[in-house]
Amino acid sequence: MSDDIRKVFEQLNEVHIPFIVLKGWAFGGDLYQKLGDRGISDLDILVKSDQLKDVISALKKVGFYMVEPKSVFSGSQKNTNDTIPLALNFRSKSGVFIDLHTHVFTSPWLLPVYPIKMDDLWKEKSLFTDWDGNSIYRLSLEHNFMHLVSHIIRHGLTSNVLKSYQDLDILINKYSNEINWTKVIENSINWRMMKGTYFVCVILNQVYKTIIPEELIILLKPNKLRIWLFGLTTSARNLKDGLKNKKYKMFIGKLVLIDRPIDIIISLLRPIFPSKEFTKSLYGKPTSLLSHWFQLIKYGIQY
Q1: I need a labelling partner for 54 at 20 to 30 A (CA). Which of 48, 135, 158, 244 fits?
Q2: Cβ proximity of 259 and 194 under 8 Å
Q3: From CA 14, how far away is CA 6, in angstroms rounded?
Q4: In what order do the strands lie in the sheet with 43-46?
Q5: Residue 161 phi, psi dihedral angles, 5° rounding
Q6: CA-CA distance, 185 to 46, in Å (whole number)?
Q7: How far is CA 272 from CA 85, 265, 268, 279, 293, in A?
Q8: How far, in Å, CA of 43 to CA of 62, rounded?
Q9: pLDDT, tens digit, for every residue of 152-192?
């Protein structure tokens, strides 16, 4: 795995394409001293949307090929001339996977709900040395915290993202005194992830005994109704035991995490009445509303 990834880093640097590593690899040599200390199934890379074509060419040059998503409702999208996908999947001949991101929140359904300013992430990126001694960029401490939170939110706080909970626990334990918690709170407000950040921190405290700054809990705490709904959809015990939540509870949980009630309505209507541009980004071609509804019902039955 390391050889293929090293070639990717070298190729991107050679053609002067900036990139940021995300999630697991971003903590290599820091939160985890050895590659085997944290299971890595793929490499997540963030690139700028206007350089996507050049990045794809660079990946192909070192032996990676694009993998079509199994479903239009998965995390990756179709790559077309008219649209910029949030995420694309690549694989090398030796079986190494790369998730290529143009955004840190890769759900096209929920993206409008969370107004994340990508320019800020690029401006505040941080240089570090990974497992293999590569000097590369990752997000700042505060943005890494928020990205892990957003990844958990996208999956509805479920046990499917236990690694992200574990990353957050270790990140906070190691860097609590260096993290600018005021900035974390500001990002939670600006990204409209106040409730998601609060509930993720509650779970971290209950399951991992993570010490969370009191001011964060006080300032982000939602009303009693949200807390009650959260209790109905999410079980800290299930997370601790690695048990998967029922899918309908995961769906409701995602809605509970949305800050503004109007955005809950928007997120429900968006997949039912999508714009032409949105369906084109999903399917890679113009698609009728009836055809989209058929795919949506088919996915709902499987879901």
Answers
A1: 135
A2: yes
A3: 12
A4: 64-67, 87-92, 97-101, 43-46, 20-22, 135-138, 126-129
A5: -120, 40
A6: 23
A7: 20, 11, 7, 11, 7
A8: 15
A9: 998 887 767 889 999 999 999 999 999 999 999 999 999 99
Compute the distance between CA of residue 273 and CA of residue 6 in angstroms, rounded to an integer.
Answer: 43
Q: Which residues pair with 67 in a beta bridge?
A: 89
Task: Look up residue 70 and give its amino acid.
Answer: K
Q: How far is CA 29 from CA 35, 141, 262, 263, in A?
A: 8, 15, 43, 39
Token look-up 């690029």 returns 122
Per DSSP, which regions of the chain are E strands? Answer: 20-22, 43-46, 64-67, 87-92, 97-101, 126-129, 135-138
pLDDT at 251: 80
Q: pLDDT band for position 286 (50/70/90)?
A: confident
Burial state string for 41-64 with b = 16 or more CB within 10 A and e = fewer than 16: ebbbbbbbeebbeebbebbeebeb
Identity at 42, one-letter amino acid code = D
Amino acid at 3: D
Segments of 105-153 assigned E as strands: 126-129, 135-138
Strand segments (E) across 80-169: 87-92, 97-101, 126-129, 135-138
Which residue matches tokens 């997000």? 139
Contacts with 55 (C-beta within 8 Å, 6 or more apart), sequence order:
12, 17, 19, 47, 100
